[in-house]
Design a protein that fits this description.
Blueprint (H helix, E strand, L loop, with lengths): L3 E10 L2 E6 L2 E7 L1 H6 L6 E10 L4 E6 L2 H10 L7 H10 L2 H9 L3 H4 L7 H11 L13 H8 L6 H11 L4 H15 L5 H13 L1
Parallel strand pairs: 3-5
Antiparallel strand pairs: 1-2, 1-4, 2-3, 4-5
Helix pairs in contact: 2-3, 8-9, 8-10, 9-10
Length: 204
């Protein structure tokens, strides 16, 4: 298994980069975030890698660090998420943003990625809430992230979250739904409209 590559950038191609390692060119697929952070042609770069073997092809994926690679791995444990979709998610969300989205049960953030619809986004946040990768963007920060995502006490958003929790929804689910509703309707939306919109979000 190829776990890391260090070499000179030969060229950037669509969705990836060719890295020259002692005269051998490795084609490495990367998220757009990783690609944008790479230096120019001829510069030395080191990437953590994941070698994926399928019936019809072998493919090498590259990541800026181990946390991004770990998220790539754990995302693919969710049914419906393959390497292409996992890379699409990591292209639109940083690992911190991904951890925040899962902790807050915010499927709207995940739906920004190509190939991720509302149902798949909901499955991702449901299945990964207890299985985030270890490290700086993993389970150790989930409680803090969830707390930061909660609306300030005494606001209509906080009251809407409380109302949804009283209806039987988990706090993280309720917070994510109300946050999505508030972004769509505006922060000054009244309580009843937030509750109604939050229920609609949860029903998607």
């Amino acid at each position: 298994m190829i776990a890391k590559l260090t070499g000179r950038i030969d060229a950037q191609v669509e969705d990836g980069v060719i890295i020259d390692v002692n005269g051998v060119g490795y084609l490495v697929a990367c998220s757009s975030r990783t690609l944008s952070a790479l230096p120019g042609a001829g510069e030395v770069v080191s990437l953590m890698t994941e070698f994926v073997v399928r019936e019809d092809r072998f493919q090498l994926f590259g990541f800026r660090d181990g946390i991004e690679r770990d998220w790539f791995r754990v995302l693919q444990t969710v049914q419906g998420v393959g390497a292409k979709v996992a890379l699409a998610i990591l292209s639109v969300l940083s690992t911190d943003e991904l951890a925040r989205a899962v902790a807050a049960q915010d499927r709207t953030m995940l739906s920004r990625a190509a190939g991720v619809g509302p149902k798949l986004a909901q499955r991702i946040v449901n299945e990964l809430k207890d299985r985030a990768p270890a490290g700086g963007s993993g389970l150790g920060v989930f409680a803090a992230v969830a707390a930061a995502a909660a609306p300030p006490a005494g606001t209509p958003a906080a009251d809407a979250v409380s109302a949804l929790v009283n209806l039987g929804y988990r706090p993280a689910e309720a917070s994510g739904a109300v946050a999505a509703a508030a972004r769509r309707l505006g922060d000054d939306t009244d309580l009843q409209k937030l509750i109604t919109a939050g229920l609609r979000e949860l029903a998607k």
